[in-house]
Amino acid sequence: MLRRSVPFLAFAAMSFLTVSLANAQENWVRYPGGDGPGKGKKIVLISGDEEYRSEEGLPQLGKILSKRHGFDCTVLFAIDPKDGTINPNVNDNIPGLEALADADLVIMLLRFRNLPDDQMEKLVAYIESGRPIIALRTSTHAFNIPAGRKYADYSFNSKAWNGGFGRQVLGETWISHHGDHGKQATRGIIPPGKATHPILKGIASGEIFGPTDVYGVTIPLPGDSDPLVLGEVVSGMSPSDPALEGKKNAPMMPVAWTKTYKTRSGAVGKVFTTTMGASQDLTNEALRRLIVNASYWAVGLENKMPEKADVAIVGPYEPTKYSFNGFTKGKKPADFAHTP
Questions:
Q1: Which residues of 93-123 are buried (b: 16+ CB within 10 A; e: fewer)?
Q2: Least packed by Cβ within 10 Å: which of 2, 43, 155, 292?
Q3: Looking at residue 9, what is its pLDDT?
């Protein structure tokens, strides 16, 4: 009988572990934090939407938060298990959610995900811990889980948990396109009395702009939601276009707000939600600054927030126009790994 020495078996086990870890890490990308106010804080960014190219936008946010501010960032993706490529149309697989176990902050842009129970339980454990959440664009309707499943009440249209995760945790679920989708952009207006909020530091009213449209929300927003930015519906798609005349802007819909949420276990967490945040929206410097500022606020680093946070784009960034089935086929997480 062939005998193996203990050192050989240990080496073989270590080699297997190394290969397994390498294969697992092909499903996500990590940007280690350097020097900066965020050093020692871990952010997990979760992408997974069919339309707004979160698979492009969240890696750029991760690079900015890591390189410019010192946060350790891990970006997760919707992965096609057949070939390991990023495929946002695969709504039931986001590997790597175990990274949430020791995360200090989650930034998500999800849409109608139907994750299996073993993946959802990692996300739910994070939420139930009361740790902070930053939610972008379609995260108001992040989940669409069929009735009878363990986490069905997280669905955007839940009746048992009114409005599901979106309304109960973030402050709103899916309501409507308030602006004309693809024809009327959004300009961010700071309401009276809010300009001194730390999340708005270094941002002037009217500087925020995005080619995605304003979403409809309930006015007033539920709970203790505090609107920080209102969405002015613009008559066209250019930053120089005037506000649309008429009732669409009377009143304007909130497009960014803070909120606290109480978990079923009694923990209290804080949330920043914006219905902006598509990859094209992130070409706007003021919107990037809004999200970076919100990250400082969320993890309790307001006293270290720069006067005007450096949000310069890291590396090349040419986001794809938002559309269904418009994602770049064949991309893998490793394609987003390089940080200059």
A1: bbbbbebbeebbbbbbbbbbbbbeeebbebb
A2: 2
A3: 42
The pLDDT-based confidence of 110 (bands split at 50, 70, 90) is very high
Site of tokens 């739910």? 124
- Which among 180, 279, 280 is positioned nearest to 231, based on CA atoms? 180
- Cα distances from 241 to residues 28, 85, 125, 245, 286, in angstroms, run 39, 39, 44, 12, 18
On the question of a cis peptide bond just before residue 211, with omega within 30 degrees of 0, the verdict is no
| Domain chopping of the chain, boundaries | 14-177+218-226+253-330
Question: Among all chains, which residue has been given the structure tokens 């730390």?
Answer: 198
Q: Which of 172, 249, 243 is nearest to 209 (CA)?
A: 243
Spatial CA neighbour of 169 closest among 257, 253, 72:
257
Residue 177 identity (one-letter amino acid): H
Provide the pLDDT for residue 188.
Answer: 98
Torsion over CA of 143, 144, 145 and 147, rounded to 10 degrees?
130
Do β-strands 186-189 and 176-177 pair in parallel, antiparallel, or remain unpaired? Answer: unpaired
- Say how far apart CA 108 and CA 86 lie, in whole Å: 16
d(CA 68, CA 340): 12
Query: Could you count the other beta carbons within 10 Å of the beta carbon of residue 239?
Result: 15
Is 262 in a helix, a strand, or coil? strand
Q: How far apart are CA 16 and CA 11, in angstroms?
A: 9
Above pLDDT 90, what percent of the chain?
A: 89
Ramachandran region, residue 278 (left: φ > 0; alpha: ψ -120 to 50; beta: rest): beta
7 prior amide bond cis, ω within 30: no
Looking at the DSSP bridge assignments, the partners of residue 254 are 230
- Sign of the C-alpha dihedral, residues 306, 312, 315, 320? positive
Contact between residue 269 and residue 261 where contact means Cβ atoms under 8 Å apart = yes
Cα distance between residue 327 and residue 56, in whole Å: 9
